[in-house]
Design a protein that fits this description.
The chain is α/β, with parallel strands linked by helices and 187 residues long. The mean pLDDT is 92. It is 40% helix and 19% strand. 33% of the residues are buried. A 5-stranded mixed sheet has the order 3-2-1-4-5, with helices on both faces. The protein starts with a helix and ends with a helix. The protein is globular and about 45 Å long.
Length: 187
């Protein structure tokens, strides 16, 4: 166990809460949250948000919180074609075991992604991601879902709504997709 723990590495916080880089595809935020469903089941959602636009670029729903939820979210990010990632793109996360693992860090390097981590125990360093989960949980009634498939459909519906139809004051009263397009046209 001690050897496995030694292999996990934390990395410096290079984001420094500077969420509004105004460059889509540069600073990406990630985290995992839980969503109870059915009578006693638990689902988990891993997301990657573009910090400049708030757009959800990739996500994975699972009934287990294993390493694969984090790595499959990165795989989904690399397969998406909506946003071209910046050549200096990096993923910012907390210091959870998924993100400090050698497997995850190797996957980021293989995909040309840098990595940044919040300071230990400081949720404000990833506040935009935490805020997304809070708003999502106000809208997604996970307890009313009877299966993981139902939960997946509910999350799919919410993320489509959030990216394409949810206007936000912090984005000049645009949706995340509209704001991304606005930033790209201004560049």
């Amino acid at each position: 166990m001690a050897k496995a723990t030694q292999e996990h590495r934390t990395l410096p916080n290079t984001l420094h809460r500077d969420f509004k880089k105004n460059v889509p595809g540069l600073a990406l935020l990630t985290d995992i949250t839980y969503l109870p469903y059915g009578r006693t089941e638990m689902g988990y959602l891993s997301t990657i948000l573009d910090s400049s636009t708030g757009e959800v670029l990739a996500y994975k729903v699972s009934d287990r919180i294993t390493m694969s939820i984090a790595t499959e979210t990165i795989d989904a990010l690399m397969k998406q074609r909506r946003v071209r990632l910046h050549r200096d793109a990096f993923i910012h996360s907390d210091q959870g075991s998924h993100y400090t693992s050698p497997q995850y860090q190797k996957l980021l390097k293989q995909n040309g992604l840098g990595q940044s981590m919040s300071r230990r125990g400081n949720c404000w360093d990833n506040a935009q991601q935490e805020s997304f989960f809070g708003h999502m949980k106000d809208h997604v009634k996970s307890r009313s879902c009877s299966s993981l498939s139902d939960l997946q459909q509910e999350i799919d519906r919410y993320i489509r709504y959030y990216n394409n139809h949810r206007y936000q004051w912090g984005l000049k009263k645009m949706t995340p997709v509209q704001y991304r397009n606005h930033l790209l046209s201004a560049a």
